[in-house]
Amino acid sequence: MKGLGFRNHMLMLALLPAILVATLLSVIYVSWNFHEVEVALKERGRAIAKQLGTAAEYGIFSGSREILRALADAAHKGDPDILGVAILSERGQNLVRVGDSSPIPLELGERESVLEKADRIVLVVPVNRTVLPVDDIYSDAVPGVRTTSRISGYVVLDVSRQRLVEVRNTQMLIGLDIALGGLLLGVWLALRMARGITRPLVHIIDVVERIGRGELGARVIPEEVRTLESLGHNINAMAERVTLAHGELQQKVEQATEELRKRKEEAELLARMDVLTGIPNRRAFMQAADQEVLRAQRYGNPLTVAVLDLDHFKTINDTFGHATGDHVLVDRANLLAASVREVDTVGRLGGEEFAILMPGTPLPEAIQAIERIRQAFEQNPVSDGDQLIRATASFGVAEYPGADPTVDGLLAKADGALYVAKARGRNRVEIPAQKSIDGV
Amino acid sequence: MHLYLRGLLILLLLSCQILRAQAATVWIAISEGSADYGAVAEEVRNSLLRADAQVDVSIRPWTEVAQGGAAQVKLIVSVGSPAFVGLAEASASGRIGRTPLLASLLPRSVFEAQRRKMTGPVTAVVLDQPAVRQMALLRYAFPNMRRVGVMLGPDSLWSQSQFDKAAADLGLQANIYTVGGDADIYPTLRRVLEENDLLLAVPDTTVYNGGTIQNVLLASYRQRVPLIGFSPAYVRAGAMLALYSTPRQIGSQTARMARSLLAETPVPALQMPAEFVVSVNVNVARSLGFRLSEDALRLQLQGREGM
């Protein structure tokens, strides 16, 4: 569409002067020809009138209307352009009138006169008497000898302008045809010549538009832009750079996005992880517990939860400082995580209190597993520099479902057991109610 | 004393006589225009000189002659109408005295119109052929034709009776028509051509001039009426026949007349051409069905006039 517009523009640029010149030439041609034809028409009329006059001389002399009528008729019928013929006597008396002849002009002179009318040219041509050379010796300077008038009569010829108008119209048509023909030739030539420029340009415009629309792979085809090869080349280079820049940008955006995603995941992880120990925090643990409770509810799988609390942690803190306290916490958390099965989940509920979620594990099995963990705590003191710090833990274990079949109910039951374990001297595993397993 | 005086007087008269005979001066006043004027003037001079080598002949433009100074001139010969008309005016105003004047090569009508203005003796050799000769020519050339049409203008009306008489003498019927002006020509001509077998043209410019001659010839030809002209130009233009005298013939006749004037015989009367020729347009004659011979006709005419 744009290409067509551009081509039209180019054509207009090339053809407008050509149209003007062609039109001007046509007008000049027509008016010149018209003038020539008009002159020729008058000349022809004059020649006819003169010839008729010569032929009519005897008829005028003899006053023979028959002769004159025959002559006038012949002249009138012999030429379609002659509307009428009149022959007048020397005194302007009408001798004969044939066809559509104009009224006798008022003034008759020795010279021919031309009356231009809208539809006709009226020629009044005197009929000159043919003078024969006869003997001067009889007539020279004789007083009283009249010299006979040189004019014996007049021929009035009405020449139609119709033909003139027709000729002019024909000429105008011819002129127009010539102009049109020239124009068509010009268009053809201009198109041919312009194609060398417009086709490459149209192609380039198309490519640029496609690039503009985002089709970055669009490239100028060298064969299409022979005459504008360097322009095509430059446009390709430019497109190349645009594409390249676009790619880099996209890559950077992708990198940044990935970075953000990671950060977000890390943040999310951090939100679910206990910052000190690296194991799930209370919230993450509670979520996992919720999930497992639901699963146990739905499928009737066994589920056990254990709560543990480090024994005498306040004393450790007070004795060795908070840094060591923290170190102890990290160490125990790591041990705990390492001691549970793959399916189990551990979590720090807060302070020196941890919890273990053991899906698919009935209570007896769980008690055994927890007991092993208690033993691991007992047998592996925390190494802090060159000293070993004993850090045992008390455990309360509860099985789902209890009286309260919720996570909180389950944990409260385990907490109750833990309280019992604490009360019974710490470093032991207790279950709710009376059931208890003594440490060795 | 008386004897002596008488003797002296006789001597004086004699010497005058001798002087006058030796210096007889003739001026030839020519008109300007036609070459015929020069030709006639030359012929007159040559003829005069052939007859008398003592004659002092000079050819001058008539305008020069008309200025006077012709006191010792014995004779003025005018050649052509303009010269005669001009000299007649000069004579009337007394510029050329009473010098005898011989007019030559002019229509009789012109001579007759102007001669009364002359104060001195005057005579002429005119161009007009005698009416009898013309009628005789028609008789010989067209033996079966009787009716002869003659159109006369105001200047030639005087000749009417001559044509009538000549025609009657030769057994012909001359029908005279008078033409007042241009407008009359064709209507009259039509009547002439309808009522006559022949058309005899006369030198009258009202009827016959360069502007009318073609149409008159055409009309007569269409009517198959032979036209008889009065000059070779008419034959060239299409007249079947013409009777006229050549410049040379007029010139030698003028010279003869000049000699008799110089001889102081009584002034001779006006003369019509003595010698003549007949000219025939063979094409016109043939196309109208006539066989005419110029020489035969001339000889017949000459024989009739006893030449």
Walk me through what this model shows.
The complex is a heterodimer of chains A (440) and B (307). Chain A has 9 helices and 13 strands. By secondary structure, chain A is of the alpha+beta class. The radius of gyration of chain A is 65 Å and the shape is rod-shaped. The relative contact order of chain A is 0.07. Residues 435-440 of chain A have low confidence and may be disordered. Chain B is of the alpha/beta class and 307 residues long. Chain B is 48% helix and 18% strand. Chain B contains 13 helices and 11 strands. In chain B, the strands form 2 sheets. In chain B, strands 7-6-8-9-10-11 form a 6-stranded mixed sheet, sandwiched between helices. The longest helix of chain B has 21 residues, at 2-22. The radius of gyration of chain B is 23 Å and the shape is elongated. In chain B, 48% of the residues are buried. Mean pLDDT of chain B is 89; it is low at 16-21. At the A-B interface, helix 1 of A face helix 4, helix 8, helix 9 and helix 10 of B.
Could you report the average pLDDT of chain A, rounded to the nearest whole number?
85
**Poorly predicted residue ranges of chain B:** 16-21
The mean pLDDT of chain B is 89
Number of helical regions of chain B: 13
Helix and strand run of chain A: HHEEEEEHHHEHHEEHEEEHEE
- Structural class assignment of chain A: alpha+beta
Q: Shape of chain B from CA axes?
A: elongated
- Determine the number of helices of chain A (DSSP H or I, runs of at least 4 residues): 9
Task: Give the spatial strand order of the biggest sheet of chain A.
Answer: 7-8-6-11-12-13
| Gyration radius from CA atoms of chain B, angstroms | 23 Å
Q: Count of DSSP E strands of chain B?
A: 11
The largest β sheet of chain B comes out as: 6 strands, mixed
- Order of strands, main sheet of chain B, comes to 7-6-8-9-10-11
SSE order of chain B:
HEHEHEHEHEHEHEHEHEHEHEHH
What is the distance, rounded to the nearest whole angstrom, between the alpha carbons of the first and last residues of chain B? 59 Å
Over all CA atoms, what is the radius of gyration of chain A?
A: 65 Å
Low-confidence stretches of chain A: 435-440
> What distance lies between the first and last C-alpha atoms of chain A, to the nearest angstrom?
95 Å
Structural class assignment of chain B: alpha/beta
In percent terms, what proportion of residues of chain B is strand?
15-25%
Overall geometry of chain A: rod-shaped
